[in-house]
Amino acid sequence: MAKGPVYTGKAFDSIREMLDRAVADCPEKDAYQFRAARGSDEIVHVTFQQFYDINESLGAVLTKMGYGASHIACCGENSFKWICVYITVLKSAGVFLPVDKDLPSADKLHILTEGEAKILFYSGKYEKWVQENVDNLPNIDYFIGFDRSEDEGRFLSYSKLLSEEELFLERNTMR
């Protein structure tokens, strides 16, 4: 029987420090692997450096919009984009507000209102719900759809949210 720890990890004090260290130690190793689409055999690989760059870009955009220290909500299935929003907000001065996608509508509205969310990121499955409830969410300034292709007033496309340079970064994350 072995005595002591099998692996001794390095301590870190924040998510930012953890990701910075991962990028410094192994920038070209995979941080994430996921299927390109449900049912697809194609596996997408995202290195620590690419993941870091996407998070920095998204954080910069939120900060430029004036929401770097705001309450940011997210509702949808687990996805790479969901993780990017989550880590970006954890690295910022903001507050991440996860909204359980399976909650009844009234509970989602309550969480978004009482949680003082200023931005809601959401997956395409919730596009209709968000559109139907926009008037019940006056505190939310922007609704950012992961699967939206176009901007329309307060409804923004996740992919268009980023500048052309940042979109280039995101597109080239997939190898």
Task: Describe, in short, the structure shown.
With 175 residues, the chain is α/β, with parallel strands linked by helices. The chain has one domain (15-171): Rossmann fold, CATH 3.40.50.
Written overview of the protein:
- This protein is an alpha/beta fold and 175 residues long.
- Helix content is 39%, strand content 18%.
- Strand 1 (30-35) and strand 2 (43-47) form a beta hairpin.
- The protein starts with 14 loop residues before the first helix and ends with a helix.
Spans of at least 5 consecutive residues whose pLDDT stays below 50 are none
What number of domains? 1
Instruction: Tell me the strand order in the biggest sheet.
Output: 4-3-5-6-7
CATH class, please?
Answer: Alpha Beta
Named at the architecture level, the CATH assignment is 3-Layer(aba) Sandwich
What's the oligomerization state? single chain
CATH homologous superfamily name? Answer: ANL, N-terminal domain
Q: Give a count of the beta strands, DSSP E runs of length 2 or more.
A: 7
CATH topology: Rossmann fold
**Overall 3D shape:** globular
Q: Estimate percent helicity.
A: 25-40%
Number of helices: 7
- Write the element-wise H/E pattern from the N-terminal end onward: HEEHEHEHEHEEHH
* Main beta sheet: 5 strands, parallel
Rounded to an integer, what's the Rg over CA atoms? Answer: 18 Å
Protein topology:
Layout: H1 15-25, E1 30-35, E2 43-47, H2 48-64, E3 71-75, H3 80-91, E4 95-99, H4 105-114, E5 119-122, H5 127-133, E6 142-145, E7 155-157, H6 158-161, H7 164-171
Parallel strand pairs: 3-4, 3-5, 5-6, 6-7
Antiparallel strand pairs: 1-2
